[in-house]
Amino acid sequence: MPKCQEKFASSIARFRRDEDGNLVHFSLVIFFITLLMAGMAVDLMHTETQRNKIQTVTDAAALAAADLQNPMPAMDVVNGYFEAAGISNVLDDIQVDENLNSKEVKIKTSLKVPTMFMKLGQNPIYHLNAPAVATAREAVTDVEISVVVDISGSMGGNGKIDKLRVAASDFFDTVLANNTPEAMTTVNLVAYNSNVVAGPHLLKHLNADGGTAPATNQPAAYGQLPGRIITYQTEHDLSDCIRWSDAEMNSTSVTPDQPLVRISHYDRYSNNYNKPSNRDRYCNNDRNQIQVHQTNATALKQQINDRNLTYASGSTAIDVGMKWGVALLDPVFQPVVNGLKTDGHTPSDIGARPANFKANQTEDEDTLKVVVLMTDGANFYQYDLKDEYKHGPSNIWYSHHAGGTSGGQRNRDGYFVYIPWRANNGWEPWYRPGSSTGSGDDQYYDTMDLPVDPTPINNDDDDDDNCSGAWWQCNNNNGWGGGWGGGWGNNGGWGNNGGSSSSAVNNGDPSLFDLQQLDWIEVWDQFAKRDAGYFFYRHSSYNDYVDLYYAETTKETPSTADARLFDICDAARDKDILVFAIGFEAPSQGKRAMEYCATEQSYYFDVNGTEISSAFALIASQISNLKLTQ
Q1: How far is CA 4 from CA 14, 18, 290, 369, in A?
Q2: pLDDT (tens digit, 9 = 90+) per residue, 310-328?
């Protein structure tokens, strides 16, 4: 082999054996791949930038076009936004669904963004799609609000009741402004202390009147007396506060036929022996009564600002106020509201209120339900009379001719009390208390010796069946002779200074006695609890005195009332009722209760002084925002 050929072959062999420079080849491959990936990323980022720009314009256009306050046609609004942005060419579709109280706008766009790097590949991509879609809906909803406010005694300190009046008045003005039939707001006002006064107009349409029951286990001696009670009413109608059971506190509903129990119409403390006034009673019917689904802010402000109706007194029963607040929002209450509309106590143009709860609302229904719950205190003890003293026959009787009446107030001379244990011991069983300040003029009688009129009367307090004149003008031989001062007629006997008759005026025939047995409801209508115990039994039967003096019982303690409040707040939460809660200079127990009941933490307000106005204003604003949904 020629020498030159050997050298060439040797060079080829060395080249084949030499591995220097192989990494360069690999690096070049990686470089081109990285360059391609970077180019794709640039194209994608450029496309996303364009899409974001279009999405921003699309969102803004949809919101503006859906605005119910915007007078321009929705199509024109959308086109105007895209023209101003210089991208009218991207619009694909505009859909508008509009009715009296809502508007919905849907916008679809698309843009083909040219690529810079992806078109260089083996399978070139010349454009990337950048779609944008937006839907905006604005609807004005109906709103039902229960404002539940504390007017207990502690609200009288630091001018809190006055601050509440201002805050609530401004709230009514705000939430009831611009009401329309298509978007109606109604407000219930519930003022509570120890109780809530429902009012006779409301209870007329609920089952709160009880029924009749037979009088049983009466003393045998009563069988001779025509004035004995045969049947009695199981409920009074003298005041309008309801006692809720634990089971009722687990539900938002109060149905029209649901039997309700009234709190007794009684005075806990007075000891002046006068007929108690409403203001002295545990259920004070002269106070602010529930206002149901009102639309007139002026009328509600008059209620909250009337100092004869809304004033600070009593203790605190937040659970009772909350129960009424949510019951007024439950759709089963609708027949009651319809009845109030018919009677003229609730506006007739509010439609079907309360509306269905959210879970049961149809596409045509859109009602927001709200409770604004406020307290400056904490739940306290709640009371009522023991069951045996709430209603039914008592052992207390009254003779209209022995005592008469004056302005509905019975004279103490006309009362007689039958004491069974005295009869069982062979003693005179009838006790006549006489003076309320001592026992010196107390009298005891056998049945046949009672100084009562023998002529039956109609229990009408002043007229005798057989006489057209007033009671003191009739039966002068057997009744009061010559008016108040003369004593018991021509037969002598009982005078204003006490003493007993040596011969009764009843002619020995108990079937003619005008004595009328009193139901316990009648007793409490005439006497405070303590007065009744002292007057009827303090000097005649000590055990009966103690029983009647302490005829009251504790129905709820602060802790059980809190548990009931939590139950009703849970029930409201389950029904999607929004609860805003205000602790107004409240103690820790009250604050905890308000925090628990608030739907969210942001719905709870811990305020002092005039901050209560700010809280009510912020709640009104939030309700307005919720009412106007997007």
Answers
A1: 15, 21, 122, 105
A2: 999 999 999 999 999 999 9
Question: What secondary structure does DSSP assign to 432-477, as a single string?
Answer: E---SS-STT-EEE-GGG----SS-B-S-SSBBTT-SSBGGGS-TT
Arithmetic mean of pLDDT, 340-348 = 97
Q: How many C-beta atoms surround the C-beta of residue 411 within 10 A?
A: 15
Minimal CA–CA distance to 566: which of 530, 546, 538, 593? Answer: 593
pLDDT tens-digit readout, 86-103: 888 888 999 998 865 678
- Give the list of residues 6+ apart from residue 342 with CB closer than 8 angstroms, or none: none
Work out the mean pLDDT of the chain and round it to a whole number: 84
Say which residue, 299 or 510, is predicted with more confidence. 299
Nearest to 83 by CA among 104, 57, 114: 57
Residue tagged 């399978």 (tokens): 123
Report pLDDT digits (tens) over 253-268: 999 999 999 999 999 9
Residue recorded with tokens 């803004």: 60
Asked if 363 contacts 237 with a C-beta cutoff of 8 angstroms, the reply is no
H/E stretch holding 556 reads: strand 552-556
Q: What is the DSSP letter of 176?
A: T
By the 8 A CB rule, do 138 and 65 touch?
no
CA distances from 620 to 164, 173, 176, 326, 583 (A): 15, 10, 10, 18, 17
Place of tokens 């000097």: 539
365: nearest Cα among 349, 353, 347, 379: 353
Cβ atoms of residues 629 and 63 within 8 Å: no
Three-class secondary structure assignment of 82-119: HHHCCCHHHEEEEEEEECCCEEEEEEEECCEEECCCHH
Q: Cα–Cα distance between 175 and 551 in angstroms, integer?
A: 46
Strands 261-262 and 242-243: antiparallel
Phi, psi values for residue 126, rounded to 5°: -95, -25
Phi (first) and psi of residue 602, to 5 degrees: -70, -10
Is residue 318 packed enough to be buried (19+ CB in 10 Å), middle (13-18) or exposed (0-12)? buried
